[in-house]
Specification:
GH; 8-stranded parallel β-barrel; cell wall; globular; glucan endo-1,3-beta-D-glucosidase activity
């Protein structure tokens, strides 16, 4: 049996996307108001409202008084929240995988407008259709996966609403788009190298070939400001360039840049230039957060990002927990803790989150700065 994870009682492992590990950010205190809803709830301008069903599973999340979508009939169990994360660069500099999402720009207050609404299931957590998963199309030797290999991977992760990828190398926009279309999913595509934005955007345009119906978002860069690779001005300029080229090719979807929640809060120009705020948040790297508290930590940082961005819609574009590696304070990597962290995140979020990552990324290099966990974020263990 592969090193996959079982989420909630009797549930098969959920997929996670490869991530680039980055230095841990200190958690800052965040006040979170939680309201449990069974029939009707009235709240006056709370910081955060999480609507849950009668078994405590989130069905909607709302920030800063934005009205949340509350089901008329509370389901017996809601679909899980997704998690995803980006980590340090691989030795080859190839981008990490992409996440899934809905057609409309994500809004913390309600489920994505075009993504399937989480449905009840006899097994809690069985439905991941409202969530996004990151995916990386690389073999353990850093070579590119073929279309057949990508298709095989998607037979495992097809239950998600959207898939996030990070770049255009290995012709991955085309190969992943083919698999996404076959499974009725959405694509969160990406430009990895901001300095090569024109060429990478053209590859995305070529892959779409005039049909943008499966594209939800195109991201320009991933944690480039946080890791010092680019200035804020460089990223903002690249977003404008990409948006113009994409619109000229008929694309009318979202264009964003993705960075850590720390960089996004410190540089709100990044989210102001984006169609929504897209931030990576990995509680494991904080060092003061246990697996069981991962969801509340991520929720608090999502609130802070939304506030720093003037109340803009916010998606957590990477979050998760490693199944192996070294302990980082209260954060202990293990399969059991990965399950606990993912369930905690699912309880806190009903949508607008990308789980990291689908499979273990054996193509990456472990190092002390990532606590030897770089290769072990895959929810489904090793790729088939």
């Amino acid at each position: 049996m592969k090193a996959g994870l079982l989420f909630v009682a009797g549930i098969a492992a959920a997929a996670a996307h490869p991530r680039r590990h980055h230095h841990p950010a200190k958690r800052q205190a965040t006040e979170i108001n939680v309201v449990t809803v069974v029939d009707t709830v009235t709240a006056v301008e709370p910081s955060v409202i999480v609507y849950v069903d009668d078994v405590g599973v989130a069905v909607s999340t709302s920030f800063f008084g934005t009205p949340a979508t509350t089901p008329t009939d509370t389901p017996t169990s809601a679909a899980p929240s997704t998690y995803a994360e980006t980590t340090t660069e691989s030795s080859s500099g190839q981008p990490p995988p992409a996440s899934s999402s809905s057609d409309a720009a994500p809004a913390p207050s309600s489920a994505p407008s075009s993504a399937p609404t989480p449905t009840s299931s006899s097994a809690p957590g069985a439905d991941f259709s409202g969530y996004t998963l990151s995916y990386s199309p690389y073999n353990s030797d850093n070579s590119c996966k073929s279309q057949d290999q990508v298709n095989s991977d998607f037979n495992v992760i097809s239950g998600y609403g959207m898939i996030r990828i990070y770049g255009t190398d290995c012709d991955q926009t085309a190969t992943v788009l083919t698999a996404v279309k076959a499974k009725g999913m959405k694509l969160f595509a990406g430009v990895y190298d901001v300095n090569n934005v024109n060429a990478e955007v053209q590859q995305i345009v070529n892959a779409a070939n005039g049909d943008w119906s499966n594209f939800h978002t195109v991201s320009i860069g991933n944690e480039g400001v946080n890791n010092g690779a680019y200035s804020v001005d460089q990223v903002v300029s690249a977003i404008g360039t990409a948006r113009s080229t994409l619109q000229a090719a008929g694309y009318t979807g979202n264009v964003v840049t993705v960075d850590t929640f720390v960089a996004m809060i410190a540089n709100p120009e990044l989210c102001q230039a984006s169609d929504y705020a897209a931030a990576n948040c990995h509680p494991f790297f904080d060092g003061g957060v246990s697996a069981e508290d991962a969801g509340q930590f991520v929720l608090g940082q999502a609130q802070r990002v939304s506030e720093a961005c003037g109340g803009k819609d916010t998606m957590i574009t990477e979050t998760g927990w490693p199944s192996d590696g070294e302990t980082n304070g209260k954060a202990v990597p293990s399969q059991d803790n990965q399950v606990a962290a993912v369930n905690s995140i699912r309880t806190a979020f009903s949508n607008n989150i990308v789980l990291f990552s689908a499979f273990n990324d054996k193509w990456k290099q472990n190092n002390p700065s990532t606590f030897g966990a770089e290769q072990y974020w895959g929810i489904y263990g090793d790729a088939p």
